[in-house]
Each structure stands twice: as structure tokens, then as C-alpha cells.
Specification:
Elements (H helix, E strand, L loop, with lengths): L16 E7 L11 H15 L5 E4 L6 H13 L4 E6 L9 H6 L4 E5 L12 H6 L2 H14 L5 E4 L5 H21 L2 E5 L13 H7 L3 E5 L1 H8 L4 H14 L1 E2 L5 H21 L3 E4 L1 H5 L9 H9 L3 E4 L3 H13 L4 E9 L4 E5 L16 E4 L11 E4 L5 E12 L2 E12 L11 E6 L3 H10 L6 E5 L3 H11 L2 E4 L1
Parallel strand pairs: 1-2, 1-3, 3-4, 4-5, 6-7, 6-9, 8-13, 9-10, 16-19
Antiparallel strand pairs: 11-12, 11-18, 12-17, 13-14, 15-16, 15-18, 16-17
InterPro entries: Ara_Isoase_C, AraA_central, AraA_N, AraA_N_sf, Fuc/Ara_isomerase_C, Fucose_isomerase_N/cen_sf, Lara_isomerase
Protein name: L-arabinose isomerase
Pfam family, one: AraA_N
Length: 475
């Protein structure tokens, strides 16, 4: 179990781990002795130039079907996140079609070449070294005919623009791979009557990968009773050092909250869950809990867990995807529209990732009155969202194995405080305006639970959709 004098981050978003597959053929060996070694060095140079974007595994140059299948198999066995295909010369597509169409790893085709320009000094060797584009065309054609999703990244491999596009694709590949491995823990059951959070769990597993793990509230209760006292006191000490703690909170209230947070964290670790959801009725009706785990959700989100309220697996999934793809994702919903400021008040019942709080206002851990759930007052972490660019993303189940991501870019504005609102909150102004954004959101079936990330990140979400087959809709 982790200790808590310092904020733990058990689920850091690791650097993408990408395999570079260089393709050529033995046709040119007699004409240009040593060409394989020459182009292998070029492949390593490409990986070195992109070292800021990912950790690279460079396969030996692939010149035939068996070599291609062996290299891709080794990438899969190494649990890499994706494969960047680089044409070292022209390589016939049928020698790599089997490996590239059968792999589960996300693919990108680098449309590049060793030299950025054609010069009068070029000879036949230079022509051969730089003829990758028609190999890329051959291979892309094979992937299109096989209906295999892939990204294409064109440009000078030494340019900043090329590295930026590889970075976006590599992060999307890491997120897509993370979704395939994701387990979402649901404590109890989802909220009755809430339709937009419901999903066919088998379709979700087949299409995107997340698996739902139902955890009985009684298991959580027993876990809270089996904690090391030092872990409980360490967590409370860390909260004292991190938040502005409400003096009205009693030691008993804080200890009970700390036990719930540590109990949830232990169960998620034991079950291999990197996202979770709780529902207030499932906790309240159990009869063994004194309060809802509000502050727990905020700090666990800050540690990198996906979270959503009311048993919403879809929203918990998209929050976890946001953590992997971008970092510091946040669970929220549209509460009310403010037409004079052309913004939307964003909040939820009391859960929010405090890492997106305003830097000039430290988050508060307060004694908060809450009637929902019929339990005692839950300690709650309260803050206002950091101002600046932000992006909303909602994962929509369309039926069967069809999923849609509804995305809106905008900014969190510097709106006046709302002193009576004892929840994390902020006001989001969509780039398209409240009228156009909300109308398009509704027409697209966007859900009322969503992830928020800082920055303009629509392109990142679009890249993830392209790799996973999720329909992308920007509003």
C-alpha cells in the first residue's frame, strides 16, 4: 500500500513505446552493396530524431514476409503501443500485408525519405535511397483494401512539424492500447433511469477494450476495516499539507473519509482497475457507510484514475483515456448555461480533479452538507477550474459496436466566484458559442457526463478516434 505524506501518482502516463519497422527489399543489393546497412543507419537516425516523442524499438530492416512477421510479433510480445512504418526503399506491399493487417498494434505510415530535397548532385544511389514514397503508396493501398485503420504522417523527418505529428499519433496509440487493457471498477450498480450512461459491456469490450469489474460495496466496507493505521494518518497529514482544511471537519469525519479513499485505492489496485465509478444510492443503501467518498474521487483522479459518478462506465473510460492521451483529465458535466457571458457552468456533485484548480486559489477540503445519498456530510475538495483553453469530450454508445466521441474546444473564463457552490466548478465558453455548441451536442447525442482537459486538444482526441474506429464529432 502507498503512504501519503507526498501525493502519490500510481498511474503515471508513461512515454509511448513505439516500434519502428523499416521496409526495403533485396533487389538493390547487387547494384548498391551495403545498402541494407546504409538504410538501417537511416532508420536509427529517424528514431534518434524522434526520441523526445517516444521510446523506440528499431527492428532490423525488413526485406521479406517472414522478417516482417517476426519483427511485428516481437513488437507485440514487447507490449509496445504502436508501429511506425518507414520505407527504407521501395518495398512490395504483399511482403508486409499479412503482418500489418493482423497486428493488434496501432499503425502509422511515415511518408518521408532520407534527404529532404532533390538536388543536381543526385545519382542512382540517391534515387534508390529516397524512393520510399511509392513503397508507401503500395503499402497504404494494401491497408485500405484490408479496411485496416492507419495514420499517415508526411514530411521531412528532421522537421519540428513531423515530430509534432508523430508525437500526437504516438500518444493516441498509447491511449488506444491503454483502452484495450482497461478495467473499470463499478462499486455497486449504476443509477436507475440514467440512459446515456448505459452501454452493452460486451460490445464495449469487443470494440474498444474496456472490461467492467463489478465490486460489491460490502467488499469495500471490509477493506476499510483492514487498513494500516499509519496509512490513514499519513493520508490525513498529506491533506493537511496540501489543502486548506476546514476546521469544522472532525477527526472522525476525516478518518472515515481517508479509510474509504484508501479502501477504494487498494481494491482498484488488487483488481487491476485504472478507472472506476461509484453511485450514491449504491453506497447509501448498503447501510454500512457513514458518507459518500467525494474527496476520494478527487484525489484518485489527481493520481491518474479515470472516474465518473453514478456508475457511468463510459465517462470513467473517457476520463482515463484523457489521462493517458493528454494528462490531468477531469470529470464534469454541464450544469447550467449563462447566456450573457456565452458560457456554461461546469460542475458535478463534488468530484473533480484538483490538479486543474486555479493556481491562485488553493483547493479547500471542506465540511460539506449534502442530502443526496441520505448519509452524513462528506468531506469534499472544492476549487475553481483554472482559466484558459480547455476541451470537453463525451463518449457516446450508439448501439452495437458503434461509439462516438463528441468534442468541444473553448476556454474556462475568469467568471465571478459562486460562494454558495460547495463543489468544484468553472465556466466554459465554447469556441462555437453556447447556442451552436449545445445544439450540436444534443443532436450528436453527447452525454451529460464528460471529461475536461486543459488546452485545445481536439486534434488529440481526433487522432485517438482514428485509431480506434470511434466516430469523431466536433461541436
Amino acid at each position: 500500500m502507498p503512504t501519503h505524506p507526498a501525493p502519490p501518482r500510481p498511474l503515471p502516463a508513461p512515454r509511448p513505446r513505439i516500434g519502428l519497422l523499416g521496409i526495403m527489399q533485396p533487389l538493390y543489393d547487387t547494384m548498391l552493396p551495403g545498402i541494407t546497412d546504409h538504410q538501417a543507419a537511416y532508420a536509427r537516425q529517424v528514431a534518434d530524431a524522434l526520441s523526445d516523442t517516444a521510446d523506440w524499438t528499431v527492428a532490423p530492416p525488413v526485406r521479406g514476409r517472414e522478417e516482417a512477421e517476426r519483427a511485428v510479433c516481437e513488437f507485440e510480445n514487447a507490449d509496445l503501443d504502436g508501429v511506425l512504418v518507414v520505407m527504407l526503399t521501395y518495398g512490395p506491399s504483399l511482403r508486409v500485408t499479412g503482418a500489418l493487417t493482423s497486428t493488434r498494434l496501432p499503425l502509422a505510415l511515415a511518408n518521408t525519405q532520407p534527404d529532404p530535397s532533390v538536388t543536381p548532385a543526385w545519382d542512382m544511389a540517391d534515387m534508390t535511397y529516397n524512393q520510399g514514397i511509392h513503397g508507401a503508396q503500395d503499402t497504404a493501398n494494401a491497408l485500405v483494401r484490408a479496411d485496416r485503420p492507419f495514420e499517415v504522417i508526411s514530411g521531412d523527418w528532421q522537421s519540428r512539424e513531423f515530430a509534432g505529428r508523430v508525437d500526437r499519433w504516438a500518444r493516441a496509440a498509447r491511449a488506444a492500447t491503454g483502452l484495450r487493457r482497461l478495467r473499470v471498477g463499478v462499486f455497486g450498480y449504476p443509477m436507475n433511469g440514467m440512459g446515456d450512461a448505459r452501454v452493452d459491456e460486451t460490445a464495449l469490450l469487443r470494440s474498444l477494450g474496456p472490461e467492467v469489474e463489478v465490486i460489491a460495496p460490502g467488499t469495500l466496507h471490509r477493506t476499510t476495516l483492514d487498513l494500516d493505521e499509519k496509512d490513514v494518518t499519513d493520508l490525513m497529514a498529506w491533506e493537511d499539507a496540501t489543502f486548506d482544511v476546514d476546521p469544522r471537519l472532525s477527526h472522525g469525519e476525516r478518518e472515515d473519509h481517508a479509510r474509504m479513499q484508501l479502501g477504494i485505492e487498494r481494491l482498484l489496485a488488487e483488481r487491476g482497475c485504472h478507472a472506476y465509478s461509484t453511485h450514491f444510492d449504491a453506497i447509501g443503501e448498503d447501510g454500512r457507510f457513514a458518507r459518500l467518498p467525494m474527496a476520494a474521487a478527487s484525489t484518485l483522479m489527481a493520481q491518474g484514475y479515470g472516474f465518473a459518478g453514478e456508475g457511468d462506465v463510459l465517462a470513467a473510460t473517457v476520463v482515463r483515456a484523457g489521462h493517458i492521451l493528454i494528462g490531468d483529465a477531469h470529470f464534469t458535466e454541464m450544469y447550467a448555461m449563462d447566456f450573457p457571458s456565452d458560457s456554461i457552468l461546469m460542475s458535478h456533485m463534488g468530484e473533480g480533479n484538483w490538479r486543474v484548480a486555479r493556481e491562485d486559489e488553493p483547493p479547500q477540503l471542506i465540511k460539506r452538507t449534502l442530502d443526496i445519498g441520505g448519509l452524513d456530510d462528506p468531506p469534499t475538495i472544492v476549487f475553481r477550474y483554472r482559466t484558459g483553453p480547455a476541451t470537453l469530450a463525451s463518449l457516446v454508445a450508439l448501439g452495437g459496436e458503434r461509439f462516438r466521441l463528441v468534442v468541444s474546444e473553448g476556454e474556462v473564463i475568469d467568471a465571478p466566484p459562486l460562494p454558495s457552490l460547495e463543489m468544484p466548478y468553472g465556466q466554459f465558453r465554447p469556441d462555437t458559442g453556447v447556442h451552436a455548441c449545445t445544439e450540436a451536442w444534443l443532436r450528436a447525442g453527447g452525454t451529460h457526463h464528460m471529461a475536461m482537459t486543459t488546452g485545445h486538444r481536439a486534434d488529440d482526441w481526433q487522432a485517438l478516434c482514428a485509431l480506434t474506429g470511434i466516430e469523431y464529432v466536433r461541436v
